[in-house]
Amino acid sequence: MSAAHLWTVFPRAGPFRVPPTISANGCSVSASMVAAPYRSSEEMVYEVVLKQAALVREQRRTGNDRALADVFKDRNMLNEAYDRCGEVCAEYAKTFYLGTLLMTPERKRSVWAIYVWCRRTDELVDGPNASHITPVALDRWEKRLNDLFEGRPYDLYDAALSDCVSKFPVDIQPFKDMIEGMRLDLRKSRYNSFDELYLYCYYVAGTVGLMSIPVMGICPESNATAESVYNAALALGIANQLTNILRDVGEDARRGRVYLPQDELAHAGLSDDDIFRGKVTDKWRSFMKDQIKRARMFFDEAEKGVSELNSASRWPVLASLLLYRQILDAIEANDYNNFTRRAYVGKGKKLVALPVAYARALMGPSKSSRIGRT
Length: 374
Ligand SMILES: CC(C)=CCC/C(C)=C/CC/C(C)=C/CC/C(C)=C/COP(=O)(O)OP(=O)(O)O
Known about the structure:
Enzyme class: transferase
EC number: 2.5.1.32
InterPro entries: Isoprenoid_synthase_dom_sf, Squ/phyt_synthse, Squalene/phytoene_synthase_CS, Trans_IPPS_bact-type, Trans_IPPS_HH
Bound molecules: geranylgeranyl diphosphate
Strand order of the largest sheet: 1-2
GO molecular function, one term: squalene synthase [NAD(P)H] activity
Organism: Aristolochia fimbriata (White veined hardy Dutchman's pipe vine)
Oligomer: single chain
Order of helices and strands: HHHHHHHHEHHHEHHHHH
Structural class: mainly alpha
């Protein structure tokens, strides 16, 4: 693990804060290419991390849930709302859903409600009606978000999230940022540098980590700072999204989109044309090796935070981390042909990952955790 990478994941925090070196991001790109602009996105994201961590710290200190008005008098309606969220989660994220079943009822249903909101947001730009979506529609979606945070949900799914955010110290910012990510996706189909891509990944996936931690909870025995656990959660979202991008290169290219950093492509002697041509060359393999290496580093950062979570939250997170990380192995096994072959993790591997994750999830926070307090 390069120290430079740690600087990128922990931009201002503790012992890992070192200036970037030539191997920044674990890729063979020059430091000047990634280091200077790299700070801006990271710092912006870090503000959100600090704010979220402060909310959770406050909750840990007082031991009370944030007291918002209980707007839902009709418990049956609310139970129905949460059940519907559970059904959606079970349908679209089976493994994750299975893992959530270990959580306390309150946490479990809140995680479902967050999942459903994220899925609906994603569907706005990725779903069947995506071609009709406009920035105005996203503004309306944001207005709905504000309303539900103030206890005025529009529909049943919103009602579940509205209740969830009244019970857990969830900040609205990551939700707004996810909508911002959708706006970005509407107007942008190229990313000049990893800094730009990082910001996109934060918007559309890192935010999920920040939304989830207040609900999943940090283990009471954990010595880690809230900031460090948030950083790990953020890293998992980034790792997942980078993996998604690497898996879907061909599919995205067919939609005219290239999510790979243009400067790194150029540095590797590649261009959009090579991607549209879709030929696996040695240049492409070497480029992909670096990209995979960087995604794995984000997974590694994330993994360190899992043991700091509440015991029942560790399993679903670790299981999904192990499974998603294996997509990178599958890309390698496909000899880096992510143009016409879809990398996937077979059923057998999934079945092995679940008990492995379960056994590892039994381990609590490490006393000498590198993400612990300094
Ligand atoms: C590590 C610690 C401390 C906490 C974990 C905090 C959490 C729950 C983070 C979750 C991050 C996450 C799941 C982000 C979503 C990223 C992503 C790319 C999801 C892919 O979703 P789909 O588009 O449905 O995937 P497929 O295309 O593979 O079906």
